[in-house]
Amino acid sequence: MNFFEPFADKPAIIIDIGQAYTKCGFAGESAPHAIIPTQVTLNSQRFYLHNYKLLPHGIETLKEMFIEFLYNVYYKILNANSRERKVVIVESIMTSSDFRKTLADVLFNDFHAVSVLLIPTHLACTYTLGISRALVVDMGYNDCQIMPISDGYSLTNLCSFAKLGAKHLHDYLKILIEKYALVTVDGNRVLFSSLSNQPTLTEKILEDIKLRCCFVTSFERAQKIYKQMEIKQTDSFTDLEFQFAPECDYTIESMIVHIPGYVREMACEIFFKNEIDSDQCLQNLIIDTICKTPIDLKKEFASNVVLAGGGCMLDGFKPRLAKEINALIETKSNVFPCQKLSYHKTPSHENYTAWLGGAIFGSLDILDNYSIQNTQHKELESLPDWFSIQIRNNLVQT
To answer: What is the pLDDT of residues 141-168, one digit of tens each?
Structure first.
């Protein structure tokens, strides 16, 4: 009898290792047990796992980071014995081969996982809805990925990418705060930029400001703002005679920072307007991706748009995106086959939609057919991904 057979009935562990946050839990459950930063502590400093190339001894350091990180997931968060569990890893198609191979080696050799399956993020999103074809828009931390999915495969030759992730928004928000924000010092309001000792705007602080203070303004208000900027021929929000949202106070290092209404409203405009390259706007990328698909699939993708990733959870994001796309379709009515797009509502928050898809797939009986078994790992010449997996007599072959 195979040593791993007695553990076959235990639910698999599902881990979605994102650029900024990792979601972890068990197959068959409706939500992850925890959402934690994808970070480990090295020499009293916190580092993201995906930034391993910036550290000395890259692969060796990554292995040490994985061991610490997965130990925390297995034994401190999930309280599960790694030797008794199958594992499903939800991964981006942009994940490097070194990252994937090191992760698999650590799971098999250090944690003795029963089996491991690596499933693409965009494909996992479709399992939450039970659809075979969809256009998945993933608003991640580093970038935005727009991927057509058809019959269980990601059409990577038709996908689109843009630097429109949360990190890009945080960088732009930091520029706006340093330029426009005010600070109360000795009872007087002065510009943030005039401080000799400015408080540090860390990534954690910028993310908190984004969630507490910022929102996506409506399509109609945005058009009025841009029209006024065009009339006045200015790029500065302070020159506009427009009633923006009220300012918001935020405390940084015991200092009250006053964030103006135009910063709150306009920070998220980077998703929808690009002065340098208009094609790098979210609505243009979505329409262009659909236009690149085969003619017999265009209407199907247009009718099955799935929004995923934490960026989709910003206040006002979904209605603004829908109106931006509708306005763009009107200008391309001669070449675009549909009058509007149809959006699915996933049965989860967008930030863990992919994890939920992995949890659904991980509860199926066919999991073993697609997984790499512990006994097979050393025999494989290379680590197969979803595109190269072949099923032969219930065994994974490359």
So the answer is: 999 999 999 988 889 899 999 899 999 9
